[in-house]
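Lecture notes, unit on binding sites. The following record was shown on slide 14. It pairs a sequence with S-adenosylmethionine.
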Amino acid sequence: MTQDNHDNGPGLVAQQVFGPQAAVYATSQVHIRDDSLESVERMVGAGVGSNRYGWTVDLGTGAGFTAFAVAGVSDRVVASDVTEPMLRQAQRLGQERGIANLALIQNAAEALPFAGESVDLVTSRVSAHHFRDFEKALDEAQRVLKPGGSLLMADSVAPEDDDICDWMNAIELRRDFSHVENRKISRITGMLTERGFTVMENDYPRIYLRFNEWTARTRVSPEETESLRRDFVQAPAATRESFQVAPVHNDIAFSWPCWVFRAVKG
Ligand SMILES: C[S@@+](CC[C@H](N)C(=O)[O-])C[C@H]1O[C@@H](n2cnc3c(N)ncnc32)[C@H](O)[C@@H]1O
């Protein structure tokens, strides 16, 4: 596969990366359950009114784990993703779990096929850093949500330090050419405010990863894997500390910071 991070339509690069690896994501422990999913569950449970949502849309649903987590508090969940093999995994797992109120659609987060002010809850977990145009996706969430509706996002974020932020994004891009950007919380907050969202709840879990599994999941070449391994071990002390980099037997443990927030449309 050739590396192409230029804007060639929302989701085309993502489909190249995620399509062949859909079954791997369906069994990935960090996607099946982690602290960020627990935060999502807690926040939807603590949602407005009766803690029930009518229509929920999950963006970049992947194998569907976030859609499944919100199905119990929603009348109807639409699990959407740009990659068709991912949706097939979500359909299979949803059936296995007996989730009856789940619909699936293939579309980009940047162009939602829903009427304005028709959706009660928009969710997205560990997907937004892949969206080719994150601000367009926020515009779309803002458009389709009813006034008072919630946008609940969980995603890896970059530290506020410029050098550490750049290191993280450069590393991520070498490991996954569909990576677009891990943003600083301060930047995302500004984007939300510009669109009239008010952040009501926050959580800051870590995403705990192991280097060998993390590079295998995106099929990094052996040469690049070794080069990335060196860069983790030899990173500046402040960077290693920020990402909790720790060599463990033939592997490297590390963690990305994550921000989970529920924002309400004004
Ligand atoms: C890491 S997976 C998502 C994991 C999932 N949300 C969960 O909770 O387990 C990222 C997903 O984002 C999807 N994606 C990437 N760019 C997208 C876009 N512009 N619009 C919609 N989905 C996109 C990919 O196809 C992939 O399935």
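Take-home: The two ends are 44 Å apart (CA to CA).
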